[in-house]
Task: inverse folding
């Protein structure tokens, strides 16, 4: 039996992962701003479920939640950094306040929870950290710049963790979902920038309309995604990152191909900026 610590577990990916882990006989510490929503969603989980109140932006609360998990189950085997929210608007449209709010949750919240859990994993020289990123951590479309910036940060932090934690017996992996049929595009999870500039109607504005048109019609199945994510705990080897869904896989593949082509095209310019080597006799 493994002990899973999942943030943002009251809905979406977090709830689907919690449900899948419980179905396999694992124990789950499911955190949410309102833990009663977790209990309502998983009424038959029994004593293998511990619902804990947590605002991930509160570092003290994160430490308390991790301590509560250890008191109840004795360890944390898997941390799922899932809590997050979206922000949609052209770069010029989003305000400092709006951007800071999404960074506080998606980046600093992830850091707070990770700092709270890792000491327990380091003490046991064992564990897995699963960081929910996004296809937007690699590929950015108009209107998603600020949100993608948070996921670019998650990618960097997760990649660093794979190398920092490996010598300690702890693994880390970034998950890059494309559009999945959760409530991410609903107002409860996705904030629209208050400012709208007409010049961006065909770019950022089109992204706003896409969110309206595709809410609850996304291609990805969160139940299937949860099975893949829970499977990772038993995988003998893990990549640094893994895409979920056709849009994510194809989007990242196209981005890598474009980057390789750009590198080849601009190779001489890139290499021309080194210091000239001193002639040798």
Result:
């Amino acid at each position: 039996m493994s002990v899973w610590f999942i943030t943002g577990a009251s809905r979406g990916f977090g709830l689907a992962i919690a449900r899948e882990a419980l179905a396999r006989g694992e124990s789950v510490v499911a955190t949410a701003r309102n833990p009663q929503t977790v209990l309502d969603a998983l009424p038959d989980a029994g004593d293998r479920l511990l619902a804990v109140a947590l605002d991930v932006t509160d570092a003290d609360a994160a430490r308390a939640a991790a301590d509560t998990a250890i008191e109840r189950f004795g360890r944390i085997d898997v941390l799922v950094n899932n809590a997050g929210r979206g922000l949609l608007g052209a770069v010029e449209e989003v305000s400092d306040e709006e951007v800071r709010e999404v960074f506080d949750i998606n980046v600093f919240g992830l850091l707070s929870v990770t700092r709270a859990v890792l000491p327990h994993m380091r003490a046991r020289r064992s564990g897995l950290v699963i960081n929910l990123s996004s296809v937007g951590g690699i590929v950015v479309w108009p209107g998603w710049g600020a949100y993608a910036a948070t996921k670019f940060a998650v990618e960097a932090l997760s990649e660093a963790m794979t190398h920092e934690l490996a010598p300690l017996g702890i693994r880390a992996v970034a998950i890059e979902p494309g559009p999945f049929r959760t409530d991410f595009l609903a107002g409860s999870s996705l904030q629209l920038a208050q400012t709208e500039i007409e010049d961006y109607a065909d770019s950022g504005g089109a992204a706003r309309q896409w969110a309206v048109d595709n809410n609850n019609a996304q291609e990805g199945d969160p139940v299937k995604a949860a099975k893949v994510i829970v499977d990772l705990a038993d995988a003998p080897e893990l990549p640094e990152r893994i895409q979920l869904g056709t849009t994510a896989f194809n989007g990242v593949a196209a981005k890598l191909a474009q980057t390789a082509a750009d590198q080849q095209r601009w190779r001489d310019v890139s290499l021309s900026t080194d210091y000239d080597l001193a002639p040798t006799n």
Summary: Residues 3-249 form a domain with the Rossmann fold fold (CATH 3.40.50.720). The mean pLDDT is 96. The chain has one domain: 3-249. Residues 96-124 form the longest helix (29 residues).
